[in-house]
Amino acid sequence: MTTETTFLTIDPTASQAIKALFKRQGKEGYAFRIGIVGGGCSGLQYIFSVAEKPAADDQVVRQDDVTVVVDPKSAVFIAGSALVYERSMMKEGFVVKNPQAGQACSCGESFSG
Known about the structure:
It is built from 2 helices and 9 strands.
């Protein structure tokens, strides 16, 4: 199922990082998958992976020539979020800016709903 980009906004920093990553891996045309799993000090963690193609029940967001997919269970937690790519002195990587996250751990790796 394809949704409007209001389900998930893909920041230009994330789009460029996904394109560069997929080019390095020879995976142009693939999708960037965001999921949620139990774990971390706050209870839930984001996981990022590469999907050859979306599953039939995935939420699919296409923006800036990038496809991001989210499974239905994770979509409940991710709706309304923004995917960004951050660089700082401490770390570099993809971050989900999630207004639904009730509490996040100090390291930023996990959250609670």
